[in-house]
Every structure is written in structure tokens, then in C-alpha cells.
């Protein structure tokens, strides 16, 4: 750890001394308001867990967890007995994918130091590890198991860094065979379990796309377009059906929100399959194809509906826990189901449900037992009108101690993207700040996903302008609340949210402080140095942000680096040295430019991270740095 990181960590001892001085009112808290403060370390003693692959014996689930401090894979027995750690990485994150179809070998993915060059690995039952995708500077992703359970499919860019080809890997000897060469560098989305069909998406800007089907049984690389349409229509792929007779895809062709449609592969006919008043985000099958799982993004919350296709009846699990349900899996015989439940005040916990029993049983408890749930805060979905009257949604977290007699400082959190969304669910970083007296307002500005295609595209080529005004008007909404200190409001965000933070500090005088986490500050550099494996996404990104070949003047105009002289408020910049998306030099130059103007700026550089945090110790250090920075300057 460098000296600067050590200084920030040691400052945590000092930061706690300032907690009593966070209130702008000298009136004491009402006696009834009592709650405990927790450190970032205590919040991150909460475990992050995901993955619910059920093994062939139907007695264990494969999960990924950061209980060790770094993500590793674990065997979680369905009887609730303690989990067994299977991988033991102390550096790189190990992300579990699935058990093998007929034994307890594990398929997982890992990169190196956050460089996003993921390989696929097999962890054998004796602990030996095999890299299925060896080579330098390549990226691989799992595409599915074959129906006969003798092979898996993998996409890699080993032939061409900008294009992912499709390979079939035989499980008996791990020999790979090229079965589709992606000469046009389009996006491979899915392969049917029988190995006959491949679904491909071509991005045509960011409002239009095309869906293609390849029939490998016909030989060659011939792609057939199966999405004839007029106007701008977006397509995506959910999955092929378990019997390889249908392709299930997403489209916004028929309205504001994404619907699920079915393409019958023999007749090439299209049929509406699943719709809702919000975006349908998931259609998949589990339990050897017996159960269909559909998920809807309903006003920043996840709603899941599971259906038994044999009986054509909705699966009703009694006494479901509150919150977002995700990760539904079923055993081949349908007798065992697993899923996760999560809320703002509870991290994802794994549940198991045995058919015909009274209730599902939690087999993990991932919240730090030293944290009392009553000391955590659930968000409220609120809407406010922006500069042009457009209603903007957001999630508002009100500290327990906030009141008209004890007005609290506030921070607006801006999500990543462009095109992301702040959603309901447990966030230890946000809970840490709220627990220490900071209101947090997660604004879903125009351009956020989940609110219809019109809303989504309102920021196209208007970034750092109209979407930034939504954030400004989010601040104005906070100033109308009688429990917020109107003069102490900051802005923070990660990735694209980091850019918006710097734009807010450079192009407005609205925010007292800013925290930029892995944020773009020079769009000219970012858009000309994107990783080669983003080739299929490039036209989409250029239509959204601007093409550096033709829009350089605008890109420089909205890049905070070139306007650092306009920044007057304190800034904290957080950067990963291995970030392939936002290069370290961007943050280096931004920090230097701010310092040249004698503006307070702190710089937290993680030598072992990329674009985001993989290690718990680094998440703790960053969260303590956020709190200490806010305590000092806000």
C-alpha cells in the first residue's frame, strides 16, 4: 500500500472525531432518535454472494463470495451446513459460472488485476486448475453447455482482438474446435444447446440494431437477418429454448418498453411471448427446461415470475422474503429450488425451497451480525421536475437522525453508464454514508435505462448538458426538504457517474464538493482508446457520445480536463491503475490540473484494481476515504 493510501486509512481514526460536528444545527437530537454508527470495515464485513448453480446430485449450490476478502467460489450444501471454500485466490477475483453437468467440477472465470481479459478455467474435484482459453491478451466468455452434456461453447477473441469467434470444447479432453468465425466482428449473443444455431446482434448506432441467425448445420458463416423492420428498433437476445426449437429475444419495436418475443426456428415466425408495463429484463429456463423465469425492472425494483411449463401454472413459493428476488434455479427433478433475496437493508441471502414445504429456508446470512437492521435505511422512490418539466426519478436515503431540527448534508449519487440505473438493493457504500449522517439521493437522470426508450435517448449527444441539469435540479429538490442543509450538498459517482461529478464541478457552481470514482475526464482520449473487444459496441457508443473523428470540438467542450480552471470546490479522485476503460493518465492529468489552480484535491490510486473494486480491503479504504473527505470539506 502506498503512503497516500496509508495516510487515508490512518485518517479514519481522526474522521470519527468529526461525526458529532456533522449537523448544521446546534439543537440536540430528540431523545427518541438513537442509533449506532459503524465503520466502513464493519459494513464490508457483510458478505457479497451470488450464483445458484445446483449440482447434478442436487445437494449443493455453487456460489461466488468475497468472504475471504477476494471473490472465490464455494460449495454451499443445500441442507444449510457450512459452505466449503473451493478456490483460494488472494489477488484476482474468481467468478463461478457453473458446476459441470454431470459431476462436481467447477467452471469459473478470472482476469488479472482487473484488466478485464477474462479466461475460462476448470477447477477439478482434486483441486487442479486448467485454463481452457490459454494465451496472451485474449478475452473469453462462456456461451453454454451442449444438450448432450459432452461439450461447452466459448467465445474468444484469440484470432482477432476485435472479434469473438465461437468454439466448441469437448469435456473429455478439453480440445477446442472453431465452429463459427465472426469475420464481421458482431456481437455473439447465444448458441443453441444442440449446437446448430447462433444468435448475433449488430449495433447500428444506439437506437437501431439487427438480429441475425446462423444455422451451423448448413455450413459456412452465412448469417440470416431475422429482424426486418422500419425505423429505429433495438433488439437483444435472452436465450435459446432448452429444446433448441425457439429463440427468445428482446425488442422495443412495439412500444416504449422492452418486450420478450419468440422466434420459431423452423418456420422463422415471430410471436409475442411476455410483456409488462416496464422492461422485461430476463427470460431464461431452469430445471432441465421445465421452469421459465421472467424478470421485470419495475421502477428500479426487480420483480420475478416463475412458471412451470409442464403444468402451465405460475410457481407460487409460500412466504417469500421481502425485497428483490433473483437467481432462481431448480434441480432437474424440480424438487429443489434456490434463489436470492435482497433489499436496501439486507444483502443478497441464499434461500432453498423444497417442494411442498411451508417456506423457503435461508442458508446464508450475509449481513455483518454486529450491524442492527434498524440502523440501516431503506430508500424512497421520489420524482421531481427538471429544467424542462420532465419528471426525473431517484432513490432517496434519509438518515435516521435527520429532522427539521437537525438538517443534514447531502450527496447526489450518479450511476455509471451512460445508460445505467440506480436500483433498489443493498449498497454498503451508501449505507455507510447515510449511517454517518449524509443523505444520499441516487438520481436516475434522463438517459437512464428502465423508464422507456424515449427517456433513455433524451441525453444522446447531450451528455454533460441536459443530463447534468437533471442532477442540478435534483439538488434543487433536496433544497426543498426541511431536513436537508441546503448549503451542504455534494456530488459523487462512479465510471460515467464520475464523469458527471467532474462535469458538475467544472460546468456549474452548484455543488460544494465532488468525489470522482473511476470517472472519464477526457472523452477525446477515452473514445479513441477503447479496448479492442468493444468493437461490436463502438457504433453504439459513438452514436451515444459522439464520434471522435467528427465530433472532436464537442467532446473537448464537455470534457472536464480541458476546463479544470473552472473547478473551485474540493475534489477526491479514485482510480485503478489497471483500468482498461478509463486510463490512469486521465486521472493523473485531472489531479495535476486541479492542483495547479490551488484547489484542494485528494488522489487515491489503487495499484491492484481496474474499472471497479475486486478486493474488499480496497472497498473499505475507498469508503473510509469518502467519509473522511466529506467530513473535512462538507
Give a brief outline of the structure.
With 634 residues, the chain is an alpha+beta fold.
Features:
634 residues, alpha+beta, eight-stranded mixed β-sheet, four-stranded antiparallel β-sheet, 11 helices, globular, disordered N terminus
What would you say this structure looks like, in words?
This protein is of the alpha+beta class and 634 residues long. Helix content is 17%, strand content 35%. Strand 17 and strand 18 form a beta hairpin. Helix 1 crosses helix 11 (616-633). It is globular and about 65 Å long. The protein starts with a helix and ends with a helix.
> What summary fits the major beta sheet?
8 strands, mixed
Helices and strands: which structural class? alpha+beta
Number of strands: 36
Helix content: 10-25%
Instruction: Indicate the proportion of strand residues.
Output: 25-35%
Large-scale geometry? globular
List the uncertain runs: 1-32
Side by side, the strands of the main sheet go 29-30-32-31-33-34-35-36
Write the layout of secondary structure elements.
Layout: H1 3-15, H2 40-43, E1 49-54, E2 60-65, E3 72-77, E4 84-85, E5 95-99, E6 106-110, E7 119-123, E8 129-131, E9 140-145, E10 151-160, E11 163-170, E12 176-180, E13 187-191, E14 197-204, E15 208-215, E16 223-225, E17 235-240, E18 246-251, E19 259-264, E20 269-274, E21 279-286, E22 291-298, E23 301-308, E24 313-314, E25 324-330, E26 336-343, E27 346-354, E28 361-362, E29 380-385, E30 391-397, E31 408-414, H3 428-435, E32 439-443, H4 453-456, H5 466-479, E33 484-494, H6 496-507, E34 514-517, H7 523-528, H8 538-545, H9 552-557, E35 571-576, H10 584-595, E36 601-606, H11 616-633
Amino acid at each position: 500500500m502506498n503512503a497516500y493510501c496509508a495516510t487515508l486509512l490512518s485518517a479514519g481514526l481522526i474522521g470519527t472525531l468529526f461525526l458529532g460536528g456533522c449537523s448544521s444545527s446546534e439543537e440536540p437530537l430528540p431523545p427518541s432518535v438513537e442509533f449506532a454508527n459503524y465503520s466502513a470495515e464493519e459494513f464490508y464485513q457483510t458478505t457479497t454472494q451470488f450464483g445458484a448453480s445446483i449440482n447434478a446430485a442436487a445437494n449443493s449450490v455453487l456460489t461466488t463470495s468475497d468472504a475471504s476478502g477476494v471473490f472465490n467460489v464455494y460449495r454451499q450444501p443445500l441442507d444449510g451446513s457450512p459452505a466449503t471454500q473451493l478456490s483460494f485466490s488472494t489477488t484476482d477475483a474468481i467468478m463461478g459460472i457453473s458446476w459441470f453437468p454431470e459431476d462436481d467440477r467447477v467452471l469459473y472465470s478470472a482476469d488479472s488485476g482487473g484488466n478485464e481479459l477474462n479466461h475460462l478455467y476448470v477447477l477439478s474435484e482434486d483441486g487442479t486448475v486448467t485454463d481452457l482459453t490459454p494465451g496472451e491478451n485474449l478475452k473469453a466468455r462462456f456461451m453454454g453447455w451442449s444438450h448432450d452434456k459432452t461439450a461447452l461453447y466459448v467465445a474468444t477473441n484469440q484470432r482477432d482482438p476485435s472479434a469473438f469467434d465461437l468454439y466448441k470444447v469437448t469435456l473429455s479432453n478439453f480440445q477446442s474446435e472453431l465452429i463459427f468465425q465472426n469475420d464481421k466482428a458482431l456481437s455473439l449473443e447465444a448458441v443453441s444447446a444442440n449446437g446448430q444455431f447462433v444468435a448475433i446482434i449488430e449495433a447500428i448506432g444506439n437506437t437501431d440494431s439487427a438480429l441475425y441467425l446462423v444455422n451451423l448445420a448448413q455450413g459456412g458463416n452465412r448469417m440470416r437477418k431475422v429482424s426486418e423492420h422500419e425505423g429505429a428498433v433495438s433488439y437483444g437476445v435472452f436465450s435459446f429454448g432448452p429444446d433448441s426449437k425457439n429463440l427468445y429475444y428482446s425488442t422495443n419495436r412495439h412500444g416504449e418498453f422492452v418486450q420478450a418475443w419468440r422466434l420459431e426456428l423452423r418456420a422463422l415466425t415471430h410471436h409475442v411471448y411476455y410483456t409488462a408495463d416496464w422492461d422485461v429484463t430476463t427470460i431464461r429456463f431452469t430445471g432441465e427446461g421445465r421452469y421459465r423465469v421472467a424478470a421485470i425492472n419495475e421502477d428500479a425494483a426487480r420483480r420475478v415470475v416463475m412458471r412451470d411449463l409442464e403444468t402451465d401454472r405460475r410457481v407460487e413459493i409460500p412466504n417469500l422474503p421481502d425485497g428483490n428476488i433473483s437467481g432462481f434455479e431448480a434441480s432437474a427433478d424440480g424438487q429443489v429450488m434456490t434463489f436470492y433475496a435482497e433489499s436496501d437493508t439486507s444483502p443478497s441471502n441464499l434461500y432453498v425451497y423444497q417442494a411442498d414445504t411451508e417456506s423457503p429456508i435461508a442458508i446464508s446470512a450475509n449481513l455483518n451480525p454486529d450491524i442492527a437492521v434498524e440502523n440501516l435505511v431503506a430508500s424512497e422512490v421520489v420524482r421531481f421536475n427538471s429544467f424542462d418539466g420532465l419528471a426525473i426519478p431517484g432513490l432517496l436515503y434519509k438518515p435516521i437522525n435527520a429532522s427539521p431540527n437537525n438538517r443534514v448534508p447531502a450527496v447526489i449519487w450518479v450511476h455509471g453508464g451512460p445508460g445505467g440505473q440506480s436500483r433498489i438493493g443493498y449498497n454498503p457504500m451508501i449505507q455507510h454514508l447515510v449511517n454517518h449522517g449524509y443523505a444520499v439521493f441516487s438520481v436516475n437522470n434522463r438517459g437512464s435505462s428502465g423508464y422507456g426508450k424515449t427517456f433513455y435517448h433524451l441525453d444522446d449527444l447531450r451528455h454533460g448538458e441536459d443530463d447534468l441539469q437533471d442532477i442540478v435540479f435534483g439538488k434543487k429538490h433536496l433544497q426543498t426538504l426541511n431536513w436537508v442543509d441546503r448549503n451542504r450538498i455534494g456530488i459523487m459517482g462512479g465510471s460515467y457517474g464520475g464523469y458527471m461529478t467532474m462535469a458538475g464541478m467544472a460546468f456549474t457552481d452548484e455543488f460544494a464538493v465532488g468525489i470522482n470514482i473511476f470517472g472519464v475526464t477526457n472523452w477525446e482520449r477515452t473514445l479513441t482508446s477503447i479496448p479492442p473487444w468493444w468493437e461490436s459496441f463502438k457504433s453504439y457508443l459513438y452514436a451515444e457520445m459522439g464520434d471522435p473523428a467528427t465530433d472532436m470540438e464537442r467532446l473537448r467542450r464537455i470534457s472536464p480536463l480541458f476546463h479544470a480552471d473552472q473547478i473551485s470546490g474540493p475534489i477526491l479522485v479514485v482510480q485503478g491503475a489497471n483500468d482498461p476503460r478509463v486510463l490512469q493518465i486521465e486521472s493523473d492529468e485531472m489531479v495535476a490540473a486541479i492542483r495547479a489552480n490551488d484547489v484542494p484535491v485528494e488522489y487515491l490510486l489503487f495499484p491492484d484494481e481496474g474499472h471497479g473494486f475486486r478486493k474488499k480491503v480496497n472497498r473499505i479504504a475507498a469508503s473510509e476515504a469518502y467519509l473522511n473527505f466529506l467530513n473535512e470539506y462538507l
